[in-house]
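Final report, Chapter 2: Outcomes

The project's central promise was a pipeline that accepts a single protein chain and returns its three-dimensional structure in a standardized token representation, suitable for archiving and comparison. That pipeline is now operational. To close this chapter, we reproduce one record exactly as it appears in the project archive, with the input sequence first and the structure output second.
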Amino acid sequence: MIKSSFTFILFVCLGLLLVACPASPAPSPNPTDPTDPNNPAPPIPGAENTLLHEGSQYPIDNGMIYFGSKEGNHVATTLKIADGIFLPTTVYYGDIPVTTWSPESGEANMTVKLQTMGDSFEAGTYTFVAPVGEGPILPNPQGKNYIEGGTMRLDVDGSGTATKDERFDIIGGRILITSEEGGMTLVFDLTLSDGSQVVGSYNRSFIDPDNLARPYPGPGTPPPAPPQDGEICTYLIRDEIEEPTVLKDTPAACDYLLGGFVTVSSKLTIEPGVVIRATEKAFLNVEKGEGIDKGELDIVGTPDKRIVFEGEKSLKGYWRGLELEDIQESRLHYVDIRDTGYECRYCNKAALSLENTPVSLQNVTVSNGLLTGLYVDKDSQLLEFSSNRFFANDGAGLSLESAETLTQLDTESDYSGSDKPNGLPYIRVSNAELEDDTSRRWKGLNAPYFFRYSVDVQAGSLALDPGVDIIVSGAEFKIDANAQLSAQGTASAPITFRGENDEQKDWEGVYLYGSLGNTLKHVNIKNAEWGVYLEDEASLSLSDSFIQAEYGVACDIGYFKTDKNTLELGPNNRFETVQFDVDPDCELLTP
């Protein structure tokens, strides 16, 4: 039985950096002595880059190798090999760059971790006991490592997920590390707490850093030929982008590796067909630069050459996503963003976050995210918004800080996720205090408008198109004296006001405070305490509607009972109430 593929991550914490030094002559192995550090662990029969456990094979299809200093007041850490990409760095011991190491000069430990969708090999600590070997790419460790601890989780029942009950302590074993021409081989021979064995091997060829770990091309710079391996990204992006830069499509399957927290404070243009893969926790932050400089994005693909942002692994929450903050007018057209939502205290709120930014979004998809798809703050503007899709995200497809942004949405976009629904199946709105004296129109979309707090239209007018579905969580939908509501649905596409839960009195209802000329036609009001509440000489025309509430239409005539709230009661209204359908204090008008 072939199990799901492993992703292999190997951490080596060294007291000193392993770099080239003359290798000590290795003693001859004793094949009869299993503790002989020169006696290699048995390779897996007939398979490379595979672990074997109890007759089941677990393929390892790519990997990362980390080296870092362990002791002393050391500086930055890592040489990293990721999917064959070699990123050279320098490790310091105190203020002195390390150039040699031997077992006698300091303790060195290694921690191993395998990860995949279902199976994982969790942290185990090993003691490095063999000398350093010399290889074509430096440093190259070589030697035998004996296990001191750790656990392994394997999907032994084939369910697709390794559970807590499928976790084993590692009680013994070793890993042989051998440097080879242009690469490294690791051979595993481990014993688990149930007495079973895990054996296997992993081989990774190094790539010349001069050919791969180079800056992304600047404006007008044509990309050189990429590596032959289509799974290796042509360029690495890990530095701040402070001058106009163009990312170009290359023949490789992955054009750019986003290798960490990258800030853009100038214009970044991405050409059609570019694929950008992000390392774990990576983040692209486009922001205002120094002085008057501001970042800007011009990311415009085509229907047959879309631009892609994705994680190295197709996992929700693998990387943080994109944040556009106080930048120039920008464009994202024919762009796919997926695998985002890495959570931390100060992380962005969505796969794509807009703060004080004017932007055009057309034919953008946001999917497979752990959080919200798109977040728009109150100071941002959607200059163009059409045919976008938000699906398979754990949060809402779209989250808005202000209800004023609702007028900028289009009817062709998919906000709910359709056949791959979002975890929160609505458009989430945080603040719905509408203060401007302007005309507003909310369109009938394929997802409800969800308001966590009261909606308060304080000025201007609000028109609701047929099919609008409004959810108010435990609060009221209020129209003030200087505002007006026109909610006119159709028999086939009524307008709905409802609470978050299908329970009696789940929200307060529609309140009209001194507001004149309001119309409700083909409207359903469900699970409210008050269907419609008129106060301070408000007026309403109601027809072809259904009200399910504790009280149907109520009119408050004031302390002196002189307020006249007028109700024009048209045909085909239906009520499902507990107390009354229409308050006798309402002044009824004949249509």
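Archive annotation: The chain has three domains: 6-24+33-205, 216-222+230-426, 435-591.
This record, like all others produced under the grant, will remain available to the consortium after the project formally closes.
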